[in-house]
Amino acid sequence: MTQKCHHIIATSVRGALHRAKNIPCQDYYCTKCSDNKIVATVSDGAGSAKYGKIGAKIICETLCDILINSNIKNIKKDIIRAVDTARQKLIFHRFNRSKSESELINFSATVIGTFYCKGQGIFFHIGDGAGIAFSQNNYENFIISEPENGAYACETYFYTMSDWKSSLRFTSYNNANRIVLMTDGVTGFVFAEDYSKIRQNFLIPIAEYLDNEKNKKKAITALHNTLDDNKAQRINPDDKTILWIKLQ
Questions:
Q1: What single DSSP character describes residue 96?
Q2: Which of 46, 81, 102, 167 gives the lowest tally of CB atoms within 10 Å of its CB?
Q3: What pTM, to 2 d.p., does this model score?
Q4: Taking a C-beta distance cutoff of 8 angstroms, is the pair 242, 227 a contact?
Q5: Which helix (H) or strand (E) holds 114?
Q6: How many other C-beta atoms lie within 10 A of the C-beta of residue 178?
């Protein structure tokens, strides 16, 4: 695999709440690239699920492994196949004692991801978190895949639910050269409450810094420190993941 056509920076930070309880970060992300295709996925394992981190890891890696061999024509069908494959892996996972679908609740996780090829892209999304596609320095015109919550703000949807297909959403975009995926620990910093605007003091400085920083290790460290800042942890003590893609 090669990444010569783009630049990807990502990091996950354990939230203050999990840190206080000595619980590992439940977020996970994965990317795969070829000369003209990118697959990127971010997942938030449910804090209430015993094996949420495992659920997050398996959905991200399975989507990347399958979709890197897909194309824009068949992508929706292949996304559904990949989620089904991830669910089958969980049914036969060693921590699924009964090897039944009923125990998938123990692996509950959301997922937000993207497939991009030759100027065309699509977000695929179950639950909260968000995806955004835009062009450099044009922060007013963007395509967003918004969070989806349940009847209450603290509830969302997971790919481990029996009716997961009814919660799977697709959002297409064209001609973007910046893509950002994030878990719900980050969305409040990025968007206005109705998701109609990007807040000026978070994503824009990050995007401009990452556009200009040529040292990848330094960029990852800076991004990590921003998410792990004391103020950010006080505002939202949840786990936080952000994945930034620069195209072209």
A1: -
A2: 102
A3: 0.95
A4: yes
A5: strand 111-117
A6: 22
DSSP 188-228: HHHB-TTSSSB-TTTHHHHHHHHHH---HHHHHHHHHHHHT
Closest C-alpha among 14, 68, 19 to residue 183: 14
d(CA 133, CA 245): 9
Nearest to 242 by CA among 178, 168, 167, 164: 178
Q: What separation in angstroms does the CA of 190 have from each of 49, 164, 194? A: 27, 27, 11
Task: Quickly state the pLDDT bin for 36 (edges 50, 70, 90).
Answer: confident
Nearest to 228 by CA among 16, 10, 8: 16
List, in order of start, the domains of the chain with CATH numbers. 6-247 (3.60.40.10)
How far is the C-alpha of 202 from the C-alpha of 180, rounded, in Å?
13
Task: List the structure tokens of 131.
Answer: 């995806």
Q: Which of 45, 53, 111, 108 is nearest to 82 (CA)?
A: 111
The tokens describing 83, both together, are 């989620």
Query: Strand, coil or helix: what is 59?
Result: helix
Of 17, 35, 38, the closest CA to residue 26 belongs to 17
The 8 Å CB, 24+ separation contacts for 27-30 are 27/56, 27/183, 27/185, 27/239, 27/240, 27/241, 28/53, 28/56, 28/57, 28/60, 28/241, 29/60, 29/181, 29/241, 29/243, 30/60, 30/61, 30/63, 30/64
Cβ atoms of residues 107 and 58 within 8 Å: yes
Q: Would the pLDDT of 231 be above 60?
A: yes
How many CB atoms within 10 Å of residue 111? 28
4 pLDDT higher than 50: no
CA dihedral (134, 113, 158, 95) positive or negative: negative
